[in-house]
Write a structure and sequence with these properties.
Nucleotidyltransferase, domain 5, 5-stranded mixed sheet
Amino acid sequence: MSVYAIGFDIGGTKCAVILGEFVGSDDIRIVAKKRFATKEAASPEACLLSMCGLAEELLNENGVGKSSVCGIGISCGGPLDPARGIIQSPPNLPGWDDIPAVEIVSAKTGLPAKLENDANACALAEWKFGAGRGFSDMIFLTFGTGLGAGIIAGGRLLAGRSGMAGECGHIRLAADGPVGYGKAGSFEGFCSGGGIAQLGQMYAKDAMAKGKSVAWCPSPDKLDEVNAKVIGDAAENGDEDAKAVYALSGKRLGEGLSVLIDILNPERIVIGSIFARSGDLLRPAMEEVIARETLPQSAAVCKVVPAELGEAIGDIASLAIAKDTFVQ
């Protein structure tokens, strides 16, 4: 008999409800999906109830009975309390203050539910169905708008006492630098879309102050238009200034990864988004630092690879929560 799961992906812009089918022990099929703009809901409670209603529609439309559904995985940005199933005021969800998501969803659907931080959920997705499949010690880094992370150690997701394990974006790598996670010089500050944009702006301002021109930022009034994609596109086209920005981010990525490799001794580090798209710009400097800074025994067993799930990772992440929690 097929085993199904329902995923709730809660975001500041949109919410999605996904019906998935587990195929064997290591594959998944997205059966159907419905979504809506988060702002359409009058309240957090109304949003969750709308998602429950869409879940019922998906089951009915696809002829799936609740007896075939293992449970519901809820993926949401933090902070949150996974143990109690409570969403605790995420910055991208104003008004979502101490919302008992699991209690609301379980009561409405009659199905067990589990809440998890979205970065941890993505770690589960890449571990169960992507680039981390088959490895019991793995780290996943988002490297997107910010630097979220999830840690799989000894075949289980590390949560920590307050559900905050894996927040490596907050690690300080330098006394000063681009701001990420509320801290100048942080891992997230150097290794995220926002951080690379700040690095590019700093580089361009310094060049202009010395009377040099930067092709991807020709004048001070264009600084606000500089972002990771603009710099990445220029670097891919051979611009040396843009390459230098990515090389600096790659160097700091190597420093951050060296700390993680020495402490956690993983077999795989899986990195998404910008690294998956522009790894060739980041990898040389990253690997140089890892070779110099990391314990040889730990570096020898660890491979840094791009994420595999691409744009589907958000959908699969919520389903992976259900699999990890409710399927033995």
